[in-house]
Amino acid sequence: MSDDIHALRAVLFETLRSLKDRDDPIDLERARAINETAQVIINSVKLEIDRMRIAGGGDRGTDFIPVLPAAAQQSSVAAERQTQTGMETVTPIQGGVLRRHVIR
Q1: Is 25 helix (H, G, I), strand (E, B) or coil?
Q2: pLDDT confidence tier of residue 71, bands split at 50, 70 and 90
Q3: Most CB atoms closer than 10 Å: which of 22, 37, 75, 99?
């Protein structure tokens, strides 16, 4: 087994499946193990997003976050508007809209 993010995620997802797929009811200890395993996966994705923000290259995606099609990248023009409490930025993303609110 190699020691990289791919191997780690494979083991985490395998662990998550094995915890979930057992026939007996989920007890509190197993529920906690499922939650903790899922949290590790989520935290690794958050790190990828942070890396994309810092290093740029959000249009290239990562090994876990897919690359947006060229059409979706070109239509990702953010629109800003003043609200009663601050500023709202609306950015089209694949499958929806990302709204960011900054309070004064």
Answers
A1: coil
A2: very low
A3: 37
